Amino acid sequence: MSKTIRVPNRVYERIKAHQQEHESVGETLDRLVGGRSLRELSGILTEAEGETMREAIAAAEQRGNRDLDDLVERIEQARESATETE
Q1: What InterPro entries does the database record attribute to this sequence (predicted)?
Q2: Which of 21, 47, 53, 86 is packed most tightly, with the most Cβ within 10 A?
């Protein structure tokens, strides 16, 4: 069974931009929205596993922030050096 839906032209154009050769609009939509939902992952980790994952993510974020701070500092030092030589 098929259904008719109404979408704004801008949405239709975005769908068409993702459409592959010989693929119907319905097939394109199915491909784009198909697959698993994050909701399906609910409950696959134990509480302890979830906590371990949260800690690992937080540690990675801290490392990333430190790396970014280091990069900003090097850029600022390079700018200062360039200004001093002018």
Answers
A1: Put_antitoxin
A2: 53
